Amino acid sequence: MWHLAKSPSAIALGVTALSLLAVAASGAPAVAKSSDGPSRDTRTPIKHLVVIFQENVSFDHYFATYPVAANVAGETLQGTGVAAPAFTASATTPTAIDTLGSAGLLAPNNPNSVQPFRLTPAQAVTCDQDHHYQDEQKAYNGGLMDKFVENTTRDSCSGLYGAPGLVMGYYDGNTVMGLWNYAQQYAMSDNSYSTTFGPSTPGALNLVAGQTHGVRSYDPVTRQLTTAPDPYTVRIPDANGVGTVINDPDPVWDDCSSTAHPVAGMDGTNIGDLLNANGTTWGWFEGGFRPTTSAADASNGRAVCGSVNTNVGGLTSSDYIPHHEPFQYYASTANPHHLPPSSTAMIGKTDQANHQYDMTDFSKVVDGKNMPAVSFLKAPGYQDGHAAYSDPIDEQHFLVDTINQIQASPNWKDTAIIVLYDDSDGWYDHTMANLTNASNSVDDAALCTDAASAGVSILGGYQDRCGPGTRQPFLVISPYAKTNFVDHTQTDQSSVTQFIEDNWGTGRIGDGSTDAGAGSIVNMFNFHGRTAPTVMLNPQDGTVASISGKGDNDHGRGSDAGKEDSGHGRDAGSGRKGGRSLA
Fold first, then answer.
1. In this structure, are residues 379 and 287 in contact, taking their beta carbons and an 8 Å threshold?
2. Percent with pLDDT over 70 in the chain
3. Mean pLDDT throughout 430-434?
4. What share of the chain is helix, strand, coil (3-state, %, to 5)?
5. Whether 496 contacts 503, CB under 8 Å
6. How far is CA 125 from the centre of its chain?
7. pLDDT digits (tens, 9 = 90+) for 240-278
8. Percent of the chain scored above 90 by pLDDT?
9. Where does the record place the region Disordered (predicted)?
10. Is residue 348 scored above 80 in pLDDT?
11. pLDDT at 40 (0 to 100)
12. How many CA atoms lie within 13 A of 405 on its CB side?
């Protein structure tokens, strides 16, 4: 079955929030200007947003049994010799959480041809699963969610853990302790999705633009348009050769992209353009972005991104992966030669780096006054969580180290960290979103074509953008996050774009972007009353290392802890000094 879209529930709005919506509806200028001035005032107390964008995990893959872990004695985390930690949930943990356990779909009651099974902490490095646009739709089987083994499993691969029906495997808190503890201490959604079905590049583009249409194919060497649209790069092209991205082509405006096949460039506007036009500082920081050979030193004038690392399974992979960097697809926000910022003071502002940086550059500014208002962080490959070359243990090291660093910064007091994922990797998840964007092309399965026939809109008239797609983890970690809270509002990757637009007053992207219609993440925050505690974790095993602060957030520990509201933004009192509240 398919689902007609449900309108996002209205949030109680004051006069300032109504004026914000008026700004948002006005659209955005087509030409960006430099963001070399101070950041604009914000509509909430959040002055710094850090978006940690990880790879290829479904919600059930990490949270199938949350908050209950097996706690098997004697287990160790793969490749580390570290004992797997035991997890015990707070007594105030919400009970209304959409997991495999709560849905009664753990073995032996699952409709798939292989039953769900627990992956142990020693089985962290596994085969990658099939996460193609159409195959994910087929796995949904019209909403029955019972054809994952037939459509997205990859059971074996060289040198990695595999098993029959591997796609049905899931981890619990003994392996992903860090994320389970962040869910305990801050806010998590059990109803957040990729904006469309498909792999990494569509997810990355949706995060920054809510849009995967507008792609053209280019020669990888000359960076000139191909004589005809490349069918891998451009799907359903129009007469001008412009179509939609459903695969993982490399970006044209990037020296480190492959030269073996056509590359992709995007028309249109992204959130970086809006922030530039608004005078708001921002940056994308990615592991391995700093070249090992500069363009100036390379014989062909192209920078080389040659840094590598080895994961806990002993596998070595590149740190920088071009098709994970969405801003390199847009000429307006690209840094083709991977040039460094002209100075630390210019990080977040417009110079030769054009807002695209190495992860080490974030460490230079996180403690200072010139930390960008909006920062997107991408781990080096071996720590991004993507099956086959990364894993949940290496991922946890990155997440905890990075979040601890932010929490130790003077900027933490007005920062929100969002942790979300680009796609599900095809891993099994039992929950389907209400479709809000249909498609009816040769690339779609019946799930999406039937939705189009039933009247679900095709935004902008652009095909191959069916969604929301697969369900993935989404957490908010902030002094202003509700604590031990699970939100049920349907959201997607472009909900982050929407929050940025609304908080900094940039206006909307337009042209069929999903930003305007995405569900709001505001219910995950408490902008009224006291703030949440600062909870730092141990990066080795994800256990709690320290807790500071009172932690008497209205929706956290204490009398309201564990109580579920409707997921629609219950008011908690008067506004808090430091920003104009959205909620």
1. yes
2. 87
3. 98
4. 20, 15, 65
5. no
6. 21
7. 999 999 999 999 999 999 999 999 999 999 999 999 999
8. 86
9. 538-583
10. yes
11. 62
12. 18
- Residue 318 in domain: yes
pLDDT in tens, 472-524: 999 999 999 999 999 999 999 999 999 999 999 999 999 999 999 999 999 99
Structure tokens at 217: 């194919």
CB 118 within 8 A of CB 75: no
Average pLDDT, the chain: 90
| Beta-carbon count within 10 A of 298 CB | 14
282 CB-near residues (< 8 Å, 6+ apart): 35, 271, 272, 275, 276, 348, 355, 372, 373, 374, 375, 376
Query: Is the confidence at residue 580, as pLDDT, over 50?
Result: no
Whether residue 278 is contained in a domain is answered as yes
Q: Evaluate the CA torsion angle 550, 554, 560, 562 in order and state its sign.
A: negative
Q: Looking at residue 550, what is its pLDDT?
A: 67
Gap between the Cα atoms of 317 and 449, Å rounded:
38
Are β-strands 187-189 and 474-477 bridged in parallel, bridged antiparallel, or unpaired? antiparallel
The residue written with tokens 């960290």 in the block is 417
- Cα–Cα distance measured from residue 235 to residue 389, given in angstroms and rounded to the nearest whole number: 28
Q: Are 137 and 447 in contact (CB under 8 A)?
A: yes
Structure confidence by residue, pLDDT tens digits, 1-42 = 343 333 333 333 333 333 333 333 333 323 334 444 444 699
CATH no. for residue 362? Answer: 3.40.720.10
Which burial class, exposed, middle or buried, applies to 75 when counting CB atoms under 10 A from its CB (0-12, 13-18, 19+)?
A: middle
* Domain extent for 380: 48-211+268-433+468-548
Domains held by the chain: number: 1
pLDDT surpasses 60 at 170: yes
Cα–Cα distance list, 55 to 245, 292, 308, 361, 473 (Å): 18, 24, 17, 21, 11
Residues 6+ apart with CB under 8 A from 238: none
Domain contains 22? no
Rounded CA gap, 421 and 426, in Å? 12
Name which of 367, 265, 267, 255 is nearest 320 in CA terms: 255
Residue 385, classed as helix, strand or coil, is coil
pLDDT in tens, 45-101: 999 999 999 999 999 999 999 999 999 999 999 999 999 999 999 999 999 999 999
140 domain residue, yes or no:
yes
| Beta bridge partners of residue 235, listed in sequence order | 244
Gap between the Cα atoms of 3 and 1, Å rounded: 7
* Joined tokens for residue 83: 């004992």
Report how far apart the first and last C-alpha atoms of the chain are (Å, whole number): 34
Q: Which of 537, 539, 531 is nearest to 82 (CA)?
A: 539
SS (H, E, C) 491-553: EECHHHHHHHHHHHCCCCCCCCCCCCCCCCCHHHECCCCCCCCEEEECCCCCCEEEEECCCCC
